Amino acid sequence: MTTFNDREKAFENMYAHDQEMQFRIQARRNRLLGEWAAVRMGLTPEETDAYAKAVVQADFEEAGDEDVIRKLLGDMTQAGVDIAEADVRAALEEQQVAARRQFIEAP
């Protein structure tokens, strides 16, 4: 029975680790996405940092990516940037790849 309990504990630990990594990758992706949008809106470096943090916070409003996409589209439209939702979704995917790569390549 001990072997079964050990395996169960190992799987639980692996699942918890995977969930934590997924959360970190998604938070990094959102930060990169915020930086991407800030460049297009012409924000200063200080404003860019604050905006990237705001995008990360926006992801906690509801499950999924729709809250982040809505925020970016609204903010960019308000800033006078002509951008389509498809462009934001494409950037989201690109930043997801970049964020995952950063975690894989991290020492």
Automatic annotation (TrEMBL):
**Entries under InterPro entries matching the protein:** ATPase_inh_sub_z (IPR009945), ATPase_inh_sub_z_sf (IPR038293)
- Taken from the record, one Pfam family name reads ATPaseInh_sub_z
Judging by the UniProt lineage, the source's domain of life is Bacteria
| Protein name in UniProt | Aldolase
